[in-house]
Amino acid sequence: MDSATSMMVAEAALSALFQRLFDTLALPFFKRLGFLFGVEKEAKKLKSTLLRIEELLSDAEERQIKEKSIRLWLSELKHIAYDAEDILDELAYIELQSKIEAAPIQTRKRKPVPDFFSRLGSNFNLGSRIKEIRERFDELVTENNHLHLRVIRHGPETERLRMRPPTSSFVDESIVFGREADKAKVVRLLTSEDSSASDSSIHEVVPICGMGGLGKTTLAQLAYNDEHVVKHFEVKSWVYVSQDFDLIKLTKAIAESVLGKKSDLTNLDAIQVSIKEALKEKRFLLVLDDVWNENCNDWDALLAPLMVGARGSRILVTTRNQRVSSNMGTVPTHFLQGLSDEDCWSLFRRRAFVDENSDAHPDLVKIGKEIVNKCNGLPLAVKTLGGLLRSKVNVVEWEAILKSEIWDLPEEGNDILPALRLSYHHLPAHLKRCFAYCGCVINKGSFEVEGNGLILRWMAQGFIQPKGSTSEQMEDIGREYLADLVSSNIEDFYCLKSLRTLSLSFYTGNIPADLFIKLRHIRTLQLSGDHITELPESIGDLLQLRYLNLSDSGIERLPKSTTRLYNLQTLILNNCQKLVEVPESIGDLLQLRYIDLSWGNIQRLYNLQTLTLDYCEKLVELPSDLSNLVNLRHLSLNVFTQSTVSIPPRIGTLKGLQTLSRFNVGKEIGCGVNELKDLIHLRRNLCISELENVVNVEEAKLAELKNKQKIYFLVLRWKCDDVESRQEGIEEEVLNALQPSTNLKSLQIEGYCGVRFPTWLGDSSFSNLTEVCLRKCRCRLLPPFGRLSSLERLILGNLYELKKVGREFYGDGTVTGFPPLESLSFASMPDLEELSGLESDIRPIRAIYISNCSKLSFSSLRYLTSLSSLEISSFPNMTSLPNGLQHLTSLESLGIYCCPELTSLYDVDLPATLDDGLGNSNYSNPTCLPKGLQRLSLRFCPKIHSLPEELLTTLRSLYIMDCPLLVEKYLVLAEGGNGYRCKISYIPNINFIGHYHKENK
């Protein structure tokens, strides 16, 4: 059908759109907005109006076919509903933008932005916009006084109104063309003595499946009346089923057809008994025409009395629904196809010309054949249009039919729309919008290729909604939708263009600079054509854009403003041969789920200089011929995820590479670490992973990291699994051979299983090294980090066999010690027992972080008089703070986290009867904390019940999270007037997070 058919289903899809509006209005954040901005009552009015309109939609959908005024009413309703959806989506975008811009990504700093509610208050004008939408809806409700739309609530009665006229077994074979082969096949399936039915089954079910108007019923009639079929079966029965599946009604219809007379029985059991008596040990044929019900249990109940028939009995089912055919059929489904052009013309000529005499009107033949071509092999359309033109010999009348929209066709004798509409109305509400939107023909052969792209477009339009709390991905839900559509109907899908979708194929002009400013609500944008070489910066104004496809365009680079498209889910750049740059900050697009640079075509993008894939978490493969991109200068893959994506072979041929953020060492030819040899321009970050694959030390030497002077951040990573199979001693030699340039600023080594570290690590020549991180390494001695004169941060984690950090850690005595070390971290080191040699006069450390080191003694910490910050976390058995912390006279900040048994902030050696119940004490300093402490943070310490009173007047910041006893004492009980709240009233910044529960009393 044409665009008018698409218009019909688009208007009817409003019920699904209304459901989304209801769902959004019920979201907590929208309710919160309504309360904060005083529009709660207006939002309730809007919801009430939407409910009233929704009740009118069913009647409007039915009447729009014949009444233009109803179509116009639905069109206006659609526009208002879309405007309402736009407002809600803008709110969601502003909330998302605030979250993204408020939080820094990695180490990049961001400017402060107004919070979500402040921005709404100043810019959004929420109340007036909701009121305007509601008033526009109210006007439509008022217009109904003239349209007289009825309130119809969905139920069995509604479905009965949509049923087509019943069918029978009689057929005029003289007006049937092109079904000889189909008839022969069905007759063979009905009369064959070879049975594929199970031993427990007497009969086989033969399904015929195809779209509405294709001739399934006609084919069944032809087979039913075939002389071989008539002779083969003792009893034949024809029952029209349609949508209204009523077990008693259908069972009674079968009984009356079998018995050949009307039945007065109303009891199901009695009716079924009559069927069993009539069919017992007889070979029968039952035709169930136009079946919709997919429920296997319903069909088992209906067919139960038929099991008494003789072997060889058959049930012939016609259906539009592929699931019905697969559920019921015991033999492969016969999928009915459209008629050939020749057969269509024969049918049309029979219907349109009196006595089939087309030769008498040669001027009409050409027009008639064009009309037939529009029918796409659909017999119903051919018969309908031929019938409308019968006896008419005026060329003008024939051309009017050829050029007409389906709405303009005469109502009398027009069966096309009702036939197609029935398929649409049978769809669940969540599929109707998807069906209305579809822009390509879906068939079994193109399901995967075209279907996946269609699903991404549905996602962009918001048609696919998550299923409650399930973790199922939207793409998977979309595939279920598509499977449902295909199985329910093999019919044509036509594109519906609206302000939500803009598709310019092979566009030859320039994109106007203000185009995207005017079309701000586009969700899906597709532009193609060699003449499109650039996009205006205004593309960044498409705040709701989810899907951007620039395939086959002449685009050279993406505007920087594309990195503001925070809702973007899909970016496709297939065959963009002139593309030379993708903005580095594309990684800001946290909603981006799918990026396709066409691995089949990217090898031909010889001018490509920058390829950024930092946040493509589902990326599993890079093109094998990536080495063809001879001008590639930047290949960025996220260093911070354990990606399995391997660098393709021969990456070393791309000698102009400056950015290669990750290199996974492989065992294949062209994948060794020696591929790095000629990449002399590499700069900034480099992560070399899977170093366990290096079995030849010479390959590591050939990497020549020492000569790569512009690499400042280096990660060397081994996998930690299957350690026992590694060759002994090889890792020590490999790490020694991978000595980097002394310009290095940051070094991370992970998964290294050598016994000792190479001598270059800790050599004083690395005077630029400011950060070192060792993780998951099996070493017993640490390098002499004290020789690194610029070291600021040292991070040690998961060093499983390290028991002691001693003086060898700081050097051989020729160096006086560290420069002012900003931070020292020890994490997840279960065997670490001792820290020694931390005397403050030669080891001025600013901050120490200790986590999950259960055997560690804190005795040496008392000498760190220069320490200003200390964090202790994940000590499950610690009941009190370590002794001697009061000697840390420079300590300003203390954080204690995840210590579930910690009960006190007092020195464990002091008397237990210090507190008089109000936090008062006779001792001048009963706590083990220094008097100068200014910031105290306690998180997940549920047994701490009070704070040292002598600290409360000096603290400048107090942060408490999930410490219910403290919440009880200083907040909950304070409401009773006992004065505990005043104990902390002197602290300028107080933040309590977590809830007090009565059971904690």
Looking at the overall shape, the CATH architecture of the largest domain is 3-Layer(aba) Sandwich
Number of strands: 28
Q: Approximately how much helix is present in the residues?
A: 25-40%
Number of domains: 7
**Helix vs. strand class:** alpha/beta
Q: Biggest β-sheet, characterized?
A: 13 strands, parallel
Sheet with most strands: strand arrangement: 14-15-16-17-18-19-21-23-24-25-26-27-28
Name of the CATH homologous superfamily of the largest domain:
P-loop containing nucleotide triphosphate hydrolases
* Oligomeric state of the chains in view: single chain
- The averaged pLDDT comes out at 76
Alpha carbon gap, first and last residue:
72 Å
- Strand content of the residues, in percent? 5-15%
How would the global form be characterised?
elongated
Instruction: Tell me the CATH topology of the largest domain.
Output: Rossmann fold
How many individual helices? 30
Question: For the record, what CATH class of the largest domain applies?
Answer: Alpha Beta
